[in-house]
Amino acid sequence: MDHHLLRELEHLLGRDGVLSRPEDMLLYEYDGSVEIARPQCVVFPTKTADVVRIVELANQYKTPIVGRGAGTGLSGGALAREGGIVVSFARMNRILEMDIENQRAVVQPGVVNADLSLAVAHAGLHFAPDPSSQRACTIGGNVSENAGGPHTLAYGVTTNHVLGLEMVLPTGELVRIGGKAADAPGYDLCGLFVGSEGTLALVTEITVRLTRLPETVKTLLAVYDRVDDATETVVEITARGITPAACEMLDGWTLRAVEAWVHAGFPLDSAAVLLIEVDGLREAAEEHSAQIAEVCKLHGAREVRVARDEKERDLLWKGRKNAFGAVGRLSPTYYVQDGVIPRTKLPETLREIGRIGKENGFEIGNIFHAGDGNLHPIILFDARDPKQFHRAVLTAEAIIRFCIEMGGTITGEHGVGMEKDRLMPFLFSETDMALMKRVRDEFNPAGLLNPGKIFPTGKGCGEVRARPQRHNAETDSAHTENHPA
Predict the structure, then answer these.
(1) Residue 251, Cα to own-chain centre: how many angstroms?
(2) HSE-up of residue 436 (Cα within 13 Å, Cβ side)
(3) Is residue 258 classed exposed, middle or buried when 0-12, 13-18 and 19+ CB atoms within 10 A define those classes?
């Protein structure tokens, strides 16, 4: 990195606000995905004016710049694919305003998702988007990826809860869009920027909608001896016009991995479980709970258990939300996929995922948002073996391409990032892609903000990325290479 740029960044932020030693960069070359890309420096702004000046310096020195929350993303969105500056928002983590009466909050991007809900719980409110990583992930990251979570089925994704943004454009211009009012007139610019994966602006302040906690919550665990029975239950629940707050599914392999660590009470001899939640007014929640239990039994559930109290409910959700950690105990590496299909295609899609796993020699666990068809197959492999990595990528691609064949899409909540850019042409036409690029180029004409994301950067479709091999931690700079499939 240009030492003049480094010196100006240290002058702006202080020496403790800039990291550039190779050993420090190791911590920032990862996120939750299987991708690797190392920045040349990491900076820690504490206020919006710092971010404006950082962007101005990046432009002056023609250096790439990438925003980063907690690094829990699963598509490489916060990785510096072309090196340059990573802007960590870890020190912009204050809740600036809680407007309880109007159910609004204004936060900096580094506020941890769960912390906002904890801060307003005394008023009977919460921030509804609840990714499984909500105890670590930040609201800025949620905005960038348009994150969802188990309760997306009833409450929607992040964009449904963002009302206003303060942002620094790639030109260094500070802008505000939206505000506390709902449904601002004119173009839905919040809708454009939320989920733009940090390619259009760096978000420095977020105004969010707070949601009232339900009067009653009923949590059911339905136990099955056949995976098909569980998936067919999901199809019929929605066909009957019942919308649960959440409808999650774990297959037998995954629930056994979870149970061995969390002891959530999942039956070890079952083929699958559904974790279903309904909420709202007491009478309605109880009625829907009874209807769902009836559907579960109609489709072969051998047991339908209703959580007796808050403690049992928390334990069941602990099992669901700690599933990825439980799987991490069993394999050197795992690759979490994120594909979406119509709910009616669940049975055949899960069968196909099993077939693809066997064909490629991988164990694949399934834990996912069954209610909205958002699949998260988990491929277990050893990343230290380049051939296994290559095969795992091919396996993941085969799964996602099948999702597209089923009428689905390549991501439900993890984003495209640098993981699935090469798959975009399978989903979008050249005309679609050209229009999206025109939007990006309008805001990010020099391409310095989060380059190498969303749009294919290789030589064409069908490429398979090989993971960079580290030879010397002191001198190796992260890179990615493309090899023909």
Answers:
(1) 21
(2) 17
(3) buried
CA distance 364 to 392: 10
Whether the pTM exceeds 0.85: the reply is yes
Kindly tell me the burial class for residue 53, based on how many C-beta atoms sit within 10 Å of its own C-beta (0-12, 13-18, 19 or more). middle
Residues 6+ apart with CB under 8 A from 181: 163
In 139-201, the DSSP E strands lie at 162-168, 174-178
Q: Distance from first CA to last CA of the chain, Å, rounded?
A: 34
pLDDT of res. 465:
57
State whether residue 465 is helix, strand or coil: strand
Instruction: Kindly give the interhelix angle for 282-298 and 227-239, rounded to the nearest 10 degrees.
Output: 140
Residue type, 195: G
> Are 236 and 300 in contact, with CB atoms under 8 Å apart?
no
Cα 216 to Cα 221, 280, 472, distances in angstroms? 17, 6, 56
Rounded Cα distance between 244 and 301, Å, is: 18
Determine the Cα–Cα distance for residues 379 and 364; give it in Å rounded to an integer: 5
Residue whose C-alpha is closest to residue 95's, from 124, 123, 66, 127: 127
Least confident of 94-98, 205-209, 397-401, 469-473: 469-473
Contact 67, 78 (CB under 8 A): yes
Q: How far apart are CA 406 and CA 340, in angstroms?
A: 9
* Cα separations in angstroms, 201 against 5, 57, 130, 181: 21, 15, 24, 22
Contact 163, 178 (CB under 8 A): yes
464, 485 contact by CB (below 8 A): yes
Give burial (CB, 10 Å; 0-12/13-18/19+) of 268. Answer: exposed
Is the separation of the CB atoms in 153 and 40 below 8 Å? no
203-258 residue pLDDT tens: 999 999 999 999 999 999 999 999 999 999 999 998 898 999 999 999 999 999 99
Q: By CB neighbour count within 10 A (0-12 exposed, 13-18 middle, 19+ buried), where does 137 fall? A: buried
Of 50, 143, 129, 56, the residue nearest 91 (C-alpha): 50
| 342 DSSP 8-state letter | -
Q: Which amino acid is at 175?
A: V
pLDDT tens figures, 74-123:
999 999 999 999 999 999 999 999 999 999 999 999 999 999 999 999 99
263: left (phi over 0), alpha (psi -120 to 50) or beta: left
